[in-house]
Amino acid sequence: MSCTSLRPSRTIRGALRGHQRVGFTLVELLVVMAILGVLAGLLAWGVNSARVAILKRAQAAELANIATAVEAYRTKYGDYPPDGSSWPVMEAHLRKAFPNIVVTELALLNPANSAANGGIRNDNAPSPHPFGGRVFDPAEALVFFLGGFSSDSQRPITGPGGPLKANPVGGGYMYNNQRENAFFEFKNGRLTLNDTGTASIDEALYGQGITNDCMPVYIGSGPSIQQGGVPMVYFDSRTYQFSGYYNFYVPGAVASSPNCARPFLSTEVNTSVSPSPLLYSNAKTYQIMNAGYDNLYGCMAPKDISANNPLILFTTPKGNAVPVNTNNGLFYPPTSISPIPYYLSSFGRFRPVDDNSSNFIDGPTFGESQ
User: Fold this and answer.
1) Domain coordinates of the chain in residue numbers?
2) Are the C-beta atoms of 139 and 231 separated by less than 8 Å?
3) What's the first-to-final CA gap in the chain, in angstroms?
């Protein structure tokens, strides 16, 4: 039998062609559109997840570079930079780092000189800080110390390339936006400087209720200044807790802000005393924190410190908010452990610091360190 005999006749082929469809039904089109919609949604979710992951890693990478800069600072000056919250710590550090520094340089930073302190805000003026005077807040200190000092051994602050320079218009000093010998190159667009780059607007920007000074804060990788980003903060272990109060940074009014940065507690306890309180993370070095893309540091700002108002809440890297023992000012492991990491009910939301990054965690962000 030849192969040609297997071919259908013309009559059969014509009948088959007559029954072939040339389009899709409405149901088939709707099914296809639904499938395409699901695929598009999955693609968008995947793209957004990848974007967020990249942003988180960029944030963590920048913070790691700042931590490296802090270590380089210590290598050069033999001491970690202070966080500005204690004048005795600040003065001792500057005298050690700059043995030839003149008294007039120190006087520019001394909170006791509230009338003429070189434009560096201290919390004794224009209105008292609720917890006492300090030279800088923990966000300003990061910029002041890592931005570079002058090579003038006697005038490291006001000499050429130092943090401050003479104000040719109003007298006194203003921020020097052309600093030298920097340990970390802060991006000018993420410093809270005014249009001329000579003074900071962070106090007005965050509604802190005090007059602007000339020392800016740094809005690190993450939401920009225009997007409401909050500063990166630095805490020196010597001042995690001292002189009857607990170090903090608040981007807003101290008495009412629901967002506060404080040194984080660890899950380890100090077994040398009984009862055994919790130790701070990096108990002998420092902590740097970035609030992440939700702009939440993870603690409530206290109105005061008293037995009747125990609003001092610290979040440990593994979970719970820890209230202060108002009798001795120490923090003890909570009696009940929440299964939800980073939950602080005061915020009315879960995982408020899930996207935070710090130099004391293992992962790029708190959430990824679990």
Assistant:
1) 52-369
2) yes
3) 75
